Amino acid sequence: MLEATVKKILQARVYEAACETPISPAPFLSRRFNNQILIKREDLQPVFSFKIRGAYNKMTQLTQEQKDKGVIAASAGNHAQGLAMAAKLMGVKAVIVMPRITPEIKVQAVRARGAKVILKGDAFAAAAEHAQELIKEHGYTYIPPFDDIDVVAGQGTIGVEILRQHAGRLDAIFVPVGGGGLIAGVAAYVKYLRPDIKIIGVEAEDSACLNAALEAGERVVLDQVGVFAEGVAVAQIGEVPFALMKDLIDDVITVTTDEMCAAVKDIFEDTRAVAETSGALSLAGLKKYIQQTGAEGETLLCINSGANTNFDRLQHIAERTELGEQREAILAVTIAEKPGSFKKFCRTVGKRMVTEFSYRYADSSEAHIYVGIQVKPGGEDRQAVIDKLREGGYQVEDLTDNELAKLHIRHLSGGRPSERFEEEVYRFEFPERPGALMNFLTQLPHDWNISLFHYRNHGAAYGRVLVGMQVPNGDRIHVAEYLDAIGYRYWRESDNPAYRLFMA
Hints:
The protein has helices spanning 2-11, 27-33, 51-59, 64-69, 78-90, 104-112, 124-138, 149-165, 181-193, 209-216, 239-245, 257-271, 281-293, 314-324, 341-349, 380-391, 403-412, 436-443, 479-486, 497-502, and strands spanning 23-25, 36-41, 71-74, 94-98, 116-119, 141-142, 172-176, 198-204, 251-255, 299-304, 328-336, 354-360, 366-374, 395-398, 424-431, 449-456, 462-470, 489-492. It is an alpha/beta fold.
């Protein structure tokens, strides 16, 4: 079976639609991890994904009768774009059934290439089921996204290019895994010619169907599948890919949402390309492999499989990046509700960069603050921060790995106080540098109590801060003088209707 697959790969017709993509060095990552790290740039395909290879190769195998009836596929997006483009080049009608979770950028790209799009279900399985119903009704030819030997052969041409473009030392290739078509094709060709090269699959931890199949010794169906990396949101590994590559791959690594987000940033910093989360999946696995094995001086290659992501998802990706790199600790800290408590807390934290600070007055004795603090990767530095705070007498709860806290609580902390009181509310622009927050608190009069505070470091030159202050009556006419002396830009928001409606 292996030799027959390699022949199919060598005979695959892909370059009438696809292009040969380069291998980009990753100098920043290479220096950081003391290994030569390379990125195969499938994000540079005409449809911004490797899927054009398998779709077009499968289309070339169809009879004229099959082409006349039209083709159909179920896809989370990238296979859909590949098939739409292939069908357009060949003058064939294409219908694509896509899960409703598919990013709008992928839906519009498929429609722009002339295919009819039907949105059905919340996962790939539901879309695939509906596609089969349409086949029975209209006689379309189904073009599988991964579970087909001709699709696998088309994806396998990536392996051909890798070995031709990089003839020197290559210790491991990291391949993203959804249904398995890509890793099966790459593993077949590379292991046939270079069995010394490790082939390592990388899966999102909430859609790890290959890892589950290997552990069970057979294909299994996951009870549920996470959709953050929708390009690999598959509940069961393909039958054809699994039979081909189960004895060829060397390992499977699973990664978290935060680790994928961090890898998106890494790819951008080294190539200026914005990968989709499933596109950065393999780099996240490569980094985890280095951390787990302590590899040094090796040549490691990952495949950036695609760059089709909605622009509005980038905010969430950026939000989770520092957590993925373990460069931010998210903590819940209890402090005394009295003037000077904020200043004392910041003094305990020291010169570390505070990345987020969220607080709302609720109780006259204790205050619960939500704080993000920049730490060094690895976990030891995070624990050192926690230990230092506890030694300072603070109650601390580590929320860094708490999904509820990261997804929701950070945006909901606050609300209305439980008792009525007067406060002045101002919005500030802080320079993003260590000590800026401490400088602000130091210059406030010592008897002003902070009743509201929200700050988030977004990586810009200036951070935006919302502050509520309980100002003694005698100082009210002098508030502007005090704030002018601090030197930060500010705006009074005490009469802002948003504040009055939701926080007063």
